[in-house]
Specification:
Elements: E1 11-13, E2 20-24, E3 36-39, H1 43-46, E4 50-57, E5 63-68, E6 79-82, E7 88-93, E8 96-101, E9 108-110, E10 118-122, E11 127-131, E12 136-140, E13 143-147, E14 156-162, E15 165-172, E16 177-184
Parallel strand pairs: 1-6, 3-5
Antiparallel strand pairs: 2-4, 4-5, 6-7, 7-8, 8-9, 10-11, 11-12, 12-13, 14-15, 15-16
């Protein structure tokens, strides 16, 4: 069972109200619970390692979520986040991000950024933001709310979220400089009416 080891130092962010409890386990239990879900379903992904999470939904049977590890790198986060939908849980395992419905755990989305470098809650806007190397994807109560166009050739840095505006920096390969940007968090579009920080 050594392939199922826990990745180190998981984060926990419960910025959104939620109808579940979750516990990161040190290892996969020797006796599996009656309900067990693997994300994604391909077994070879899980062989590299996994984040094992015991989930206890408010109005459903508990289950074990095995979330395949993306990367063993400190830059790729691992942890649990509450989501804008109180029945959804976001688990990030070495930069692989999964959002699943705790009432119907077979329903899940794997965020396409590999890796997700940050998961940032924006509760005032009802969004959980996934920051990748080139762009940002916003997850709302109904699923994906928006995604940005390319913001960087390699590496997006979020510097501030305030008043419905996200400010950050993206590296421009042609100029070899960090370029500031400002996003409208309602739409994900780059703002042109105010200077970037």
């Amino acid at each position: 069972m050594s392939g199922f080891s826990q990745v180190s130092a998981p984060l926990l962010d419960l910025s959104f109200p939620h109808r579940w409890q979750a516990e990161v386990l040190a290892a996969r239990p020797l006796i599996l619970p009656p309900r067990h879900f693997v994300y994604p379903a391909e077994a070879e992904e899980v062989e590299r390692g996994a984040l094992e999470v015991m989930v206890r939904p408010a109005d459903a049977q508990p289950f074990l979520a095995t979330c395949a590890l993306g990367f063993r790198d400190a830059a790729a986060p691992t942890g649990l986040w509450s989501a804008p939908n109180p029945d959804e849980l976001c688990a990030v395992s070495g930069g692989y991000a999964y959002v699943f419905d705790t009432k119907r755990p077979e329903r899940f989305t794997m965020i396409e950024y590999r890796p997700v470098l940050q998961a940032l809650p924006a509760p005032a806007q009802g969004l959980l933001l996934f920051v990748g190397h080139h762009a940002i994807l916003a997850w709302g109560a109904q699923g994906e709310a928006w995604r940005t166009a390319k913001l960087s050739d390699e590496g997006v840095t979020v510097t501030d979220i305030e008043g419905g505006v996200l400010r950050g920096l993206g590296w421009n390969m042609i100029t070899d400089k960090e370029t500031p940007f400002a996003l409208d968090l309602r739409t994900g579009s780059v703002r042109t009416d105010s200077p970037s920080a």
